[in-house]
Write a structure and sequence with these properties.
Elements: E1 5-12, E2 17-26, H1 32-40, H2 42-51, E3 57-65, E4 68-75, H3 78-86, H4 91-102, E5 109-118, E6 126-130, H5 134-138, E7 140-143, H6 151-154
Antiparallel strand pairs: 1-6, 1-7, 2-4, 2-5, 3-4
Length: 167
């Protein structure tokens, strides 16, 4: 288990970044022989990205909800993300081609992704009594004090806390 940081913390970066949501929906759970190869293609990609931070992925986390698997990824830029997706030397392109060839329009398994380009200063995040998590695990993990005390302040505005905040 990761160490818990008592108190309030925020994520901090002065750079733009990308939030990329990718995953699968197992629509026919009994057709394991059809959907498992799609599922099994992701761990090698994540290992490649974890061992080569120069490819631009800042961090990722996997979530499971019923028959849907979601991976939240933070990337340095869209160019890094697209470069990885299209590079024939990286594991994604061959898996993508295989999916289109073997699964295509089948309803056995679905894949999805959503890409959000976040400009510098256009995000806010707070973590209370948590291990390093989400964006704060991908970028700086800083105390949520001063200009990081409230959501509006984390977004560059000014206001007073609505409740007393223990520091």
């Amino acid at each position: 288990m990761s160490a818990v940081f008592p108190g309030r913390y925020a994520a901090h970066t002065d750079d733009p970044f990308v939030v990329f949501l990718i995953g699968v929906s197992i629509n026919r759970p009994l057709a394991v022989h059809r959907w498992f190869p799609v599922f099994a293609a992701m761990p090698p990609m994540l290992r490649e990205l974890a061992t080569h931070p120069d490819k631009g992925m800042l961090g990722s986390r996997v979530y499971l909800s019923g028959t849907v698997i979601l991976i939240v990824q933070h990337w340095r830029s869209f160019e890094h993300l697209e470069g990885f997706a299209r590079n024939p030397d990286d594991p994604h392109l061959s898996a993508w081609k295989r999916f289109n060839r073997e699964i295509g329009k089948s309803d056995v398994v679905g894949v999805y992704h959503e890409t959000y380009l976040v400009q510098a200063g256009q995000y806010e995040a707070v973590y209370v009594n948590m291990p390093r998590f989400g964006l704060a695990k991908a970028v700086e993990h800083v105390p949520a004090t001063g200009d990081k005390t409230t959501a509006r302040r984390r977004l560059g505005g000014q206001n007073e806390p609505a409740v007393e905040i223990a520091e």
